[in-house]
Design goal:
By secondary structure, the chain is of the alpha/beta class. It has one domain: TIM Barrel, CATH 3.20.20.70. 33% of the residues lie in helices and 19% in strands. The structure holds D-xylitol-5-phosphate (DX5) and zinc ion (ZN). The site of D-xylitol-5-phosphate has 22 residues, from strand 2, strand 8 and helix 7.
C-alpha cells in the first residue's frame, strides 16, 4: 500500500507560496493537496486553475486536487491542463457520479470520491470499480484548522473492511481535516493510507512538522 502525507496548501502563507512548496518538497513529501472551493458547495472561495498551473511550473509534486465545488465535472479538462493528477469530486455534488469518474479517467487523471462526515459509505458502493481513492472528510469541508470529528475513525475502518471484502484492497483511503501529531496514528490504525494535513504542516517549522508526521507514517509503510 502506498502511504503518503499530502500537505494541504490551504494552510500555507500565500505571500511565500513558492518557498513553502519547496520546503514541502525538500522535506521528502511526494504529494500536494490542493483545496478548490467555489463559494457554493462550501461557503469559502480558495483558488483555481490559474494558481494551480502557476505552481505546476515550480513543482514536481503529485497534485491531488480536492474539488469542493458544485458540478465539478465542468473542471475536469481545465484542471488536467492546469496540472492536476488526481481529481477528487464530492459524491454530494455530482448528479452523475459514475459518468464523472469515467470522464476523469478518460482525461488521464486518477479519480477520487469524497464523502462529507454525514454522508454514508453506501454512496460509493456502486462506483468502486471507477474510483482510485475514497476521501473521508473528518471535518465539514470549507475551512482549514477545524477539529477532527472522532466518528470518522469508525467510518475509515468500515470502509477499509468493505474495500477488502469487495475485492478493492488497492483502493486508497485518504482522510482530510483536523489531522495532527496527536491523532495521526489513530487515523492510520483505522486503515487510511493518504493523510492530508494543513495546519499541522504549515504552522510552525514545515521541515520539522513533516519529519515528525513522516516518522509515524513510516511505521506503516
Ligand atoms: C477542508 C479542506 C482540508 C483542510 C485541511 O475543507 O478540505 O484539506 O485544508 O486542513 P487542516 O489540516 O488544517 O484541517
Ligand atoms: Zn481537502
Amino acid at each position: 500500500m502506498n502511504y503518503q502525507l499530502a500537505p494541504s496548501l490551504l494552510a500555507a502563507d500565500y505571500n511565500r507560496l513558492e518557498e513553502q512548496i519547496n520546503e514541502v518538497e525538500n522535506s521528502g513529501c511526494q504529494w500536494l493537496h490542493l483545496d478548490v472551493m467555489d463559494g457554493m458547495f462550501v461557503p469559502s472561495i480558495s483558488f483555481g486553475m490559474p494558481v494551480i498551473s502557476a505552481i505546476r511550473k515550480k513543482s514536481d509534486l503529485y497534485f491531488d486536487v480536492h474539488m469542493m465545488t458544485e458540478q465539478p465535472e465542468r473542471y475536469i479538462i481545465p484542471m488536467k491542463e492546469a496540472g492536476a493528477q488526481l481529481f477528487t469530486v464530492h459524491a454530494e455534488a455530482c448528479r452523475h457520479l459514475d459518468r464523472t469518474l469515467e470522464q476523469i479517467h478518460d482525461a488521464g487523471m486518477e479519480s477520487g470520491v469524497a464523502l462529507n462526515p454525514a454522508t454514508p459509505l453506501c454512496m460509493v458502493k456502486h462506483v468502486l470499480d471507477k474510483a482510485d481513492l475514497i476521501l473521508i472528510m473528518s471535518v465539514n469541508p470549507g475551512f482549514g484548522g477545524q477539529k477532527f470529528i472522532p466518528s470518522s475513525l469508525e467510518k475509515i475502518a468500515e470502509l477499509r473492511n468493505e474495500l477488502d471484502q469487495a475485492g478493492y484492497a488497492d483502493t486508497m483511503i485518504e482522510v482530510d481535516g483536523g489531522i495532527n501529531q496527536n491523532n495521526i496514528e489513530q487515523v492510520l490504525d483505522a486503515g487510511a493510507n493518504i493523510i492530508v494535513a494543513g495546519t499541522s504542516v504549515f504552522k510552525g517549522d514545515i521541515g520539522e512538522n513533516v519529519r515528525y508526521l513522516h516518522s509515524v507514517i513510516d511505521e506503516y509503510r
